[in-house]
Amino acid sequence: MSIRSQISSEIRASLFLALPLAGAQMAQAAIAFVDTAMMGKLGSSILAAGGLGAISFGALLIVGSGIVAAVSPLAAEAYGAGQPQKVGQVIRQGFGLAVLVALPTMVLIWQMRSLFSSMGQPPELLEQTERYLRAIVWGYLPGLGFAVLKDFASAISKPRSVIIITLCSVPLNIIGNDVLMYGKFGLPALGLEGIGWSSTIVLWVMFLAIALHIHHQRQFRIYGIFRGFPTFDRHLIQELLHIGLPIGIIAFVETGLFTVTTYLIGQMGVAPLAAHQIALETAGVTFRIPLGIAFATTARVGQLRGQNNPRGARFAGYVGIALGAAFMCGTAILFWTIPRPIVALFLDIQDPANSKVVELAQVLLGVAATFQLFDGIQVIAAGALRGLKDTRIPMVIGIFAYWGIGLGSGYGFGMVLGWGAVGLWWGLALGLAVAAGVLTWRFSTIHLQPSEQIR
Question: In angstroms, rounded to a whole number, what is the distance separating the alpha carbons of residues 72 and 91?
């Protein structure tokens, strides 16, 4: 096969997986985007309070999903090796791992008001933030369950149901927000708390829908996902934790970079926090495309490893990185050229009361434009390494890049030099740039043999 044919073939295989998964990620981002936009309709202070709660819940959900994401490379490798029963065993243990992760995390979410208070967050926001978190907390467990089944679908190259279910959840979320925020059909007007309850309902619907779909479709029966009550398999759980804990830690340090930045900006007041939330939510939407490509890259690399094709696995990783980089270059141009219309999606830009938020949000979107490319590359490079079951060294790289470089420089720029929120965002850009370079270098320098196992 010629190089051109190989590139074309791998692009098609990657896009077959990546498009549905990226579409599902965009649909999930649309839910968060709509939530943020509807929070803005309740006022800038509610937007700040909701943003504080949303980024905290979202960060913890990403960390938990990272831990259970260990099912993806293991299931993909078993699928590539033609071992359907092993695939089913991995997914069943993944459910058990999801429960173990969810229970203590839900307790933490329930008690986060005291943590926010100790971190100097604006006191006038904390009651609203607590109500939001105590409503959305009940969606955490089904959120992890959906993540397990999404990883299963991608591992066996059957991702279409994921995007269909996620797309259908977007209008459900909009309707739920509208009804519960404003108290329609005789229900009480819950405001920000109503958005939390709407999210919980949507997360349960998504999990139940994909579970029922997998249970009733004949093509999935060979894997026996729901065959009896899952028994504890110590060896498999240990293997999942061996791979999943570093992934969870990577997710923690990456999302922690944004979360701690949010807390630091929260100490600057309501207007900077609201502007930060607008820019962060916008960047989060575009990030979902390379994130979906990263999931597909993990599956492709894992499948080719299972087929004892290390050269193909490496090539699949390069193709995924290139696809993500191309997309993020396009979004960077949009951030540079139309920041004001983007901000107008969240707030009334003609209202003088919002002028400080609007001005700062546009500046932050300009900074976000500079790190779009780096953000896309680093997440896909990490996904390619995950397909090789290489998670420990990327964990160390992540800690160094996100916290050592990103948060350290951001704190220096924003808090020490007095650049404020803009300085903290330049720290984000620097940390992501370092992560993109080092993770890509790591993937390109690993020497694989067909029988080699990465640890």
Answer: 9
Cα dihedral 129, 130, 134, 136 in deg (nearest 10)? 10
Question: Is 190 strand, coil or helix?
Answer: coil
- Give the pLDDT confidence of 5-60 residue by residue, as tens digits: 766 777 777 777 777 777 777 776 777 777 777 777 777 777 777 877 887 888 88
Name residue 49's amino acid.
A
Structure tokens that stand for 53 in this block: 């709660």
CB burial readout 395-428, b (16+ within 10 A) else e: bebbbbbbbebbbebbbebbbeeebbbbbbbbbb
Token readout for 311 is 């050269």
Q: How far is CA 3 from CA 18, 25, 293, 308, in A?
A: 21, 31, 22, 20
Token representation of residue 60: 């913890």
- Give the distance, in angstroms, between the CA of residue 113 and the centroid of all CA atoms in the same chain: 23
Q: How long is the chain?
A: 455
CB-neighbour burial class of residue 12 (10 A; exposed 0-12, middle 13-18, buried 19+) = exposed
Q: Which residue has the tokens 């695939």?
A: 87
pLDDT band at 453 (very low <50, low <70, confident <90, very high): very low
- CA separation for the pair 346, 430 (Å, rounded): 27
d(CA 33, CA 37): 6
Residue that is written with structure tokens 């499948």 in the block: 303
The residues, any chain, with a CB within 8 Å of residue 34's CB and separated by 6 or more, are 170, 173, 174, 177
User: What string of DSSP letters covers 232-264?
Assistant: P-HHHHHHHHHHHHHHHHHHHHHHHHHHHHHHH
Q: Read off the pLDDT of each residue in 404-425 and give the average, rounded to a whole number.
A: 90
More confident residue, 377 or 190: 377
Q: Residue 148 and residue 153: Cα distance in Å, rounded?
A: 9
Q: Which amino acid is at 198?
A: S
pTM exceeds cut of 0.90: no
Sequence ranges of the domains in the chain: 3-445
On average, the pLDDT of the chain sits at 83
Interatomic CA distance for residues 5 and 97, integer angstroms: 41
Computed over its alpha carbons, how large is the radius of gyration of the chain?
Answer: 21
Query: DSSP for 313-363?
Result: HHHHHHHHHHHHHHHHHHHHHHHHH-HHHHHHTTS-TT-GGGHHHHHHHHH
